[in-house]
Amino acid sequence: AKVAAAQELAEVEAELAARPAAAQPAEQAPRIPRQIVLTAKQSSLEELAGLVRANVNHTLQLNREFRLRWFSDLDCRHYIQEHYDAQLLAMFLAEHRGSFRGDLCRACVLAR
C-alpha cells in the first residue's frame, strides 16, 4: 500500500511539474491598499499625548510607503453621514466607548 501511495504521489507531482506556470502580471497594485487608518477624539496627530504621538510617528517611519488616513470623531461622523445610512450614523453617535466608535469608523472606511 505504501509503494502504491508513493507511486501515485510521484505521478501527481510529475503532472503538476509538467503544467505551465501561471502568468503573473509584471506590476500589479496590491489588493490591500497601503494605508494606515487611525481614529481618535483629537482632530490631528499633533494633538495626541507625547508618547502616543511618538509611537504613531515611529510606526509611520517604519512604513514610509503607507499613507496615513486620520479620522477624528467629527471626521468619522461626517464620513458615515456621507457614505452610509442614518441607522449606522445613529449607532456611531450612540456608542460611548471611543474604541468601539473607532472600530466602527475604520470598518466603514475600509469597506468603501
How much is the average pLDDT?
Answer: 88
With strands numbered from the N-terminus, the spatial order across the biggest sheet is 1-2
Shape: elongated
Number of helices: 5
Largest sheet: 2 strands, parallel
User: Which range best describes the helical content: under 10%, 10-25%, 25-40%, 40-55%, 55-70% or over 70%?
Assistant: 55-70%
Number of domains: 1
Quickly give the structural class.
mainly alpha
Rg, Cα atoms, Å: 24 Å
Measured by DSSP, the beta-strand proportion falls in 5-15%
- Count of distinct strands: 2
Uncertain residue ranges: none
Query: What's the N-to-C terminus distance?
Result: 54 Å
Note the run of SSEs as H and E. Answer: HEHEHHH
Description:
The chain is mostly helical and 112 residues long. It has helices at 2-18, 50-62, 73-83, 86-94, 98-111; strands spanning 35-40, 67-72. The protein contains five helices and two strands. Strands 1-2 form a two-stranded parallel ribbon. Helix 2 links the parallel strand 1 and strand 2 (67-72). The chain starts with a helix and ends with a helix.
Summarize, please:
By secondary structure, the protein is mainly alpha-helical. It has helices at 2-18, 50-62, 73-83, 86-94, 98-111, and strands at residues 35-40, 67-72. 57% of the residues lie in helices and 11% in strands.
Primary descriptors:
single chain, 112 residues, two-stranded parallel ribbon
